[in-house]
Amino acid sequence: MNVYRHIASDSSPDLSERRYSTRRAVDLDVFLITPLGDAHPANIQDVSSRGFRIRSDYGVTIGRFLTLDIPGLTRYSGWVAWSYLGEFGLEAATPVHNDIVDHIVTLGEQATAAPGANCLPFTI
């Protein structure tokens, strides 16, 4: 597994605090937006105030800046922190408020409860 640590993550001198953030499991289809504006389908696997674990066929590069387009929410941008077997971590450029984390989890639950509702058409 390759890992990239953005300097903002290293703001705490206490190593145990650097990675602490409650992660919430979710299954939500989204789009990845590249710096050139290309959109690629992806799926959020978990979310925390520090970022997202994403599954996607799009080949990411460690350190690359990407944006998540989450239906019904603002876009969230960040850097690819790690990548392994079709999944990667997107470290949020700005913290994701806990109310938004809850809302993202709720969106995933609603999409799971309505079969086919979590399938985004690939058009932008």
Describe the secondary-structure layout.
Blueprint: E1 2-3, H1 15-18, E2 24-33, E3 39-48, E4 51-55, E5 65-69, E6 76-84, E7 87-92, H2 98-113
Antiparallel strand pairs: 1-6, 2-3, 2-5, 3-4, 4-7, 5-6, 6-7
End-to-end Cα distance: 32 Å
By DSSP (H or I, 4+ residues per run), the number of helices equals 2
**SSE string:** EHEEEEEEH
Q: Would you count the extended β strands for me?
A: 7
Q: Strand sequence of the main sheet, in spatial order?
A: 2-3-4-7-6-5
Helix residue percentage: 10-25%
Global structural class: alpha+beta
State mean pLDDT (0 to 100 scale): 83
pLDDT < 50 stretches: 4-18
Q: Sum up the overall morphology in one term.
A: globular
User: What is the chains' assembly state?
Assistant: single chain
Question: What's the main sheet like?
Answer: 6 strands, antiparallel, barrel
Q: β content, as a range? A: 35-45%
How large, in whole angstroms, is the Cα Rg? 14 Å
